[in-house]
Amino acid sequence: MLVITRREGEEVVIGDPANPLGVIRIATIKGDRVRIALDFPREIAVHRREIAAEIAKNGPAIAGKIRPASKE
Questions:
Q1: Is 33 helix (H, G, I), strand (E, B) or coil?
Q2: Which residue range forms the structural domain that includes residue 18?
Q3: What is the value of pTM for the model shown?
């Protein structure tokens, strides 16, 4: 695993720098929350880890049925 440090507004290029597969940008940092912006082609699936685990366990059809956890 590669661990790097980035500041707000800085980017990480994924793949060939001349023709990148995608770019990850640190959008905002507020307290312990970091918002990232992912710029990838639509044909590349990008999922949060917990959603990816559900898809791996139950198949791709589950993706449209997953809803955010309630705050209760």
A1: strand
A2: 1-41
A3: 0.73
